[in-house]
Amino acid sequence: MKVLSTLFIVACGLSAHAQSIEKLNGDALFGDMQARHIGPALMSGRVSDIEGHPEDSKTIYIGTAGGGVWKSTDGGVMFNPIFDDHCQSIGTVAIDSKDPNNTLWVGTGEVWTRNSTSVGDGIYKTTNGGKTWKKMGLENSDRISAIRIHPDNSDVLFVGVQGALWGPSEERGVYKTSDGGATWEKVFYIDENTGCSELIMDPNNPDILYASFWEHRRTAWSFNSGGDNSALYKSTDGGKTWNKIHNGFPEGTLGRIAIAAAPSNSAILYSVIESEDKKLSGLYRSDDAGASWKHLNADFELVVRPFYFSRIVIHPTNPDIVVKAGFLGSISRDGGKTFRNLGSMHPDIHDIWFDIKDPDKLFVGTDGGLYRSLNLGNTMEIIENLPICQFYHISVDNQEPYNIYGGLQDNGSWFGPSSSPGGVEARDWEVIGVGDGFRVYPHPTKPHIMYSEMQGAENVWRYDSKNRQTRIIKPFPVKGDPKLRFNWNAAITTSLNNPDRLYIGSQFLHVSNDMGNTWTKISPDLTTNDPAKLNQAESGGLSLDNSGAENHCTIFTIAESGLDQNVIWVGTDDGNVQVTQDGGKTWTNTTPNISGLPANTWCYHIEASTFNKGTAYAVFDGHTSNDKNTYCYKTTDFGKTWTSIVTDDVYGFARSFQEDYKNPDLLFLGTEFGLYVTLNGGKNWVKFENNMPATAIHYLEMHKETNDLIMGTHGRGIIILDDVSPLRQVTNDIVTKKLHFMETKPYEMSEESTFGGTSSETQFVGANPYGGAQIIYYLSKRHTFGKMSMKVLDMDGNYVTSLTPGKKKGINIVGWGFSTSVPKVAKGKTITYSGLTAPRAAAGKYKVVIQKGKETYETTVELAYDKNSVFTHEERKKQQDVVWKLYDMMEELAYMVHRLDTYMEHGESMAKENAKLKKTVASMTSEMNALKKTLVITTGDNYVGAAENELREDLGDLYSTIAQYSGAPSSTQMENMQKIQEEMQEARDSMKKIEQKSLKKYLASLSKMELASPELESYEEFVKKD
Amino acid sequence: MKKLALGLFFIVGAFVSNAQEVTVSEILDTYFENTGGREAWNKLDGYSAVASVDAQGMEIPIEMINMKDGRTITKFSLQGKEIVQQAYDGETLWSVSFMTMKPEKGESEDTENHKRSIGEFPDALLNHEKMGYTVALDGEDTKDGVECYKLKLTKKSQLVDGEEMDNIVYYYFDKENFVPIMQEQEIMSGQMKGQVAQTLFSDYQEVDGLYFPFSMTFQTEGGGGQTIQVESMELNPEIDDTVFAFPEE
User: Fold this and answer.
1) How does pLDDT run across A380-390, given as a tens digit for each residue?
2) pTM > 0.90: yes or no
3) CATH numeric code, B6-236
4) ipTM topping 0.95
């Protein structure tokens, strides 16, 4: 024992080495701080790939455009994310048929190459069904289109690498591994501009492979699909040699090519061709394994946007049933001759998966989530628990709870609350814009006014929710203006200085001081206005695609200083950072002052500091120039000099940034792979990973009142990091202390009803923030040995309640729901639910005491009444007086019943051994039982077999009714109290009578017989709670 | 689950010098050696614990008894009424319905799974080889801010909705002192299927030479939890058979 104690001390002393914030990783710093996901999921987001288990049709995986990989094991009813620690842009998911329960591969990088698509960072493998993943290389593959695993040898895989979208790359083509991914061989390569956009393996012969190659390129201002190198190839020798199989295909340049082999007859192939000759685009079929092809169909759904929809899927048992991805998706039941659209669902269909055991059941991945059909695509139902929507931008208002506003890829503009009774549900969200949604803002002081836009500012709306009026308020060119150029995601912002002001950026900065009715240009063209980048009408390559997505040389970010309305920063998509200090009269391009930044790198966000008007932060995103480095700069002199604040700690290109409002050294950076935090102005960064997936963060906002950090993610909806104020307090000093309490604000005790919650079990419901008080402290070492407890006391040291302390290394957050302690309740046959109510603590300060081993730590926490309360101080006092009176009565009654039980039990046991006592005991017990039956329920159960109420139940009912309402009790309740008090008095009288007569007689008999009297706890001991 | 949780013990003192080369045997040997020794652990026939759960304003008393032969009972007390949450008498797994306050038998699959776990006393790690279980070092991870060794325990299969499924538990041992601070297991059925259930261990204290965690927190990964705080324990208690027995009416 002694040895153990000594060793214990040694163990505890081991971590005495000094700590500093630079050395803390996220796990040891953020502790209990958890990201909170509120979705929404009602409109869901883009599903890029669907893959089913080869034997168990209930297990389904989906890959998403920006929300990672999700798994269902119940036939698609519920899905869980299984890839949160890694790149969330998914190209493909593949299951090893030899070990289908455990071994899966994920190729990252979505292959549906729209302008807003993210990037991948390699191929991953799990051998435990998705619990943990290991990166297996191909880091620079950018986009993986297909993974085909040899059916007889799990170590042999073929991988189609579509490769870089935004530049040339040699990491493209068909790769093979023969050692389970340890090494890779590029077995087929065309050139640095042509990638493998699809790769399939003959279902009956793993040596036969088909690979479609696609020549394509995006720039920030154009897209090109097609080229002389686009082609379909076949290998019959396990990838050693490849031959074009174009017999029957159109001549001339081709674009993207889809290919599929029928599972039931692998000689039957379908291919969808993007061709120079529009008449010959569309569907081709081969019945001889690609030796010859026949053109079948060039309907709209077969030829629409090949870069987005080049997938065709064949029924598992009937080779004549095929489904083509497309704008609406279409199905053929006659071998591809004719098609009809799939049932009604969100447009933009990317993948289809047939249930292997019941092929009438199919799943469809769209821009608006995953759909399921039970009748071969006739009618579709959406899966309602996939919060994978893609926000471009978010903003917040000052309401309580605050609302979050944002626009989504292909899913319009919305606003919804940051919390809601029962959780943030689908019904809480309102639409305030259609098309693709981007910047959405509330009017800073008129909560019923909001602004939204659609792609390319084709429409900019002002919505008045009071009278449900919508007005289009976009600026139009006036005489002498060139064509206005608006980004796909056009910059709009409100003003911190003038609530009716609105800015919008084309190539010019426009300002309105009357909520968008009239506009004034306050700048020259602030972009490079490079004519080479202004030919969007010719964009698309073989299939013209001028959607506005490639609009360029535009203003992308606008930031008016909150400290001086004449200081306005503008960032452009072609790399300019312009600033005016005179409200737009003169502008300075500060970009030449930024060192280390490649020319024309997209300025994604500028943050005007709230501490100093000359200070700003600028975030640049070079990925559309094939540059994935992280760029974030700070200036303190209006852009004369800029300093990089990025370190090697950060992974991924950044798009978003947030400066804390209180601590200028606390900064947040959103990258394509998650959230980074610095506590020291950028000397080092720590990744935040607590319930936080590695998803792309397109916008960061902080709420000034709540100190919440709100993240608009492009794949996982809105994620909130509640109250970051503890991070403001983390210093080198506190991280060396054993335990350090953080300062907290007074906590308001909400008096709102908690009714809510209408969602079904299969619908996503966003979590609410914790509604109680929080005791926050930093532990420099996890508490593992010896006791640790936490108590709440009033300022006089009286016990209020106990809480469970957190013990982890880092920040611990312990919630206190404002409850004191429940009353001691009389023991009956059943439970009385009213006795589970604890009175709410009164406003004021409370001591919180942590006992940790031999050491005691103490802090105070302050509670405040709801500032929106409808109750007066007097009403509240009346409620508290009555509640505590009833509380005491509950405990008095409990003690009365306890005494009766004690006496009766004692009597019964004594009478068993002493016959002489039988009569006295029988008489006493009879009287006592008669009384007890009026005090508590002695029959029945806790459900519908409940007995009639007795005093305990009536008293408890009144107690809990009054305890749950912070205002004064009603006159009816007070009348009821009068009645109960009288009944209580009757009980006291009866008890007294029994104690004075039959109990006294019993005790006298015991004394006479020299037998022990019953031992009875004192009232104080009986009701003691600490 | 409760039994598993409570059956975890404590270690102090011995530290493996070269963390790079640590093996499963070294971790487990050190752990058992310093918690009282394998011999002492194997002599343990049962234990009882008095504990409580804090439910914001209410401390719910709990009593747990676990015996080497698999008999077990966990009951909590509400307003003086005792409610058996789970018990096993050697044949029947049972609990008390909160609605009727009457005993009800556990579902046959749950009973079968409980029977398969007999021998995991006081925890599956102690005699895992005898049980035919395997333990492997599955890398390292950080839990509760602490760098840990991750051990993967593969047990006998379990029945889940009629099918034989893998039965895997991960243990996280603090690298600094070889104490298990967390256990993880995948939830295999129901609405939460696929999520990870975690049990956190702390407040290790010595009872007659053996070390037990006096605090156990049950939570889902990233979610809220419930803590059982042990107040006292008794080793090798004398317990009447009737305590575990399914009360026939």
Assistant:
1) 999 999 999 99
2) yes
3) 2.50.20
4) no
